[in-house]
Model the fold of this input.
Amino acid sequence: MHRIVVGLLILIVECTVAVGGEVLDPEVPSILNLREQAELRDAWLAKRLDTVVPMLMRREGIDMWLLIAREYNEDPVIETMLPATWLSSRRRTVLIFYDTGTGMALEKLAVSRYPPGEQFVAAWLPEEEPDQWARIAKLIAERNPRRIAVNQSEFFPLADGLSAGEAKALVAAIGEKYAKRLVTGEKLAIGWLETRIADEMLVYPTLVRIAHAIIAEGLSEKVVTPGITTTSDIAWWYRERIRGLGLGTWFHPGVSLDRADVVGGTKANQFADKQKSSVILPGDFLHVDFGITYLGLNTDTQHHAYVLLPGETAAPDGLVAGIAAGNRVQDILMSNFRSGISGNDLQAQSRREAIDAGLNATIYSHAIGLHGHGAGPWIGMWDDQLARPPVGDYQVFPNTAWSIELNVQLEVPEWGGKVVQFKSEEDAYFDGKNIQFLDGRQEELHLIPRQ
Done:
């Protein structure tokens, strides 16, 4: 426990949240060692199991939540309920949450050869009952739940963790009486994954600060030598830097560029191809898409940089204006956040307001947390702004983290009126009333070299 307290103090003290624009060129905060990380994550898990799960089950009117996974074929939810030292399920791992309806703590049972950690009571002795499915059926019959939630979902992959084979075996084991009581646990699964507790939010800004610091380092003369460095060089430098810090990432960094003298004039973003490696030259406009994984949480950030021409000390005004336009769309989207609004309605309303403000905006934001593209409603699709996908009908809940992702297109006078796409993405937290960035946002371009 002492290590947890010390680790938290390190994480919190070193990162002062930026309310508006982010801190330019920040230092990388200290990274906890693996043992400290494990203890902190397990402390969070214990609190989440004791608070988040009962809140969700009672909100959704579920008596029993049944989670089933097999080794290397994990249910995405079970993965996040295992102790930090468990890197996968063991054999068949079955977790049961049962609400007695008395308002008391939930029963948390593990029907597994190896019970996961201290949070679940071992409920199966194979020496007494060799048939695991028979034991599961008996536990269910003894409690006689009215509604049994399982992780099956038509539209949300993260809530669809019960495999076809396990579902078939479950129905055969429990019989028709209880099979008729099986219901989708979609809202339980999404709610568990999307809900952030206060302890996590004390630390989440530090994760984003780490990401901002690494991005800034990569978009500097330390890494970029115009005429030599390629966009792929930066992407791989980011991967090595992440690994060197003992962090993970949930996707390969994307680095692309645009420039004034592209044949074709006004076609936007002709060089913005994450799969193509281009040599970086003075006058280039760089784009980075970047995320890290630390303490089981994820970040997702997109920033822009400008490579100064000889004699320049600032970026062209048209590029500066593009960053400001993206900030304006962020403001519009975040002003419309409220509990209960659907992702589809939030996107449509915000897009209308952006268009009315004269902004050529595309909005496609998403939840973030235990996964990079996290559980929660989609807020628009980048490739179809008029669509209303089923995953966008899910509503916004309090205590959730968001990746505010969008782009705006703007003519750059200094580039002959070429239309340039400005992509922005910053992580934020919604407490049910207000939403704010976790470590500020990009309001100024990174300049190479730094000025």
DSSP finds ten helices and 17 strands in the chain. Residues 198-448 form a domain with the Creatine Amidinohydrolase fold (CATH 3.90.230.10). The CA atoms of residues 237 and 379 lie 32 Å apart.
